[in-house]
Amino acid sequence: MNKAIISFVVSIVIGFGLGYLVFGVIMGDSDQQPQVAQTEPTDEASDTQGQKEEAKEETTSVDANNILNSKGCLGCHAVDSLGLDGGATGPDLSKAFTDVEGKHGKSIDEFLKEPTSAVMSSVISGSPLTDEERTQVLDMLKQASEK
Known about the structure:
By secondary structure, this protein is mainly α.
């Protein structure tokens, strides 16, 4: 009886340890929280339009990290043109906004609704994008393709 209990406890510990390694470390679930650009209000009239646009672009990149990270995209894909490191399993998404139609026969918007590749079909069916999430992803991929 004691051997059975000890074996059970050891199995649980090993199972949780492997689960942590596979889903926590290998699959990209990190403890790092996305950093949000901090801006301080200033009374100086020296802020130029270029500086404001640069701050807006930095915030937008962080937003891309949030949606792409929260939906698991960065576990397999990177978006180099936005400076988003991710997995190397899938292709870089920097030009996906313009390249998907030629590669898969449908627009990126339609592809995100109903992917034609087997891998993405199973991924998206397991965690479909809402209309708002799809719009956020499309905006970020469009921005990535323009850089």
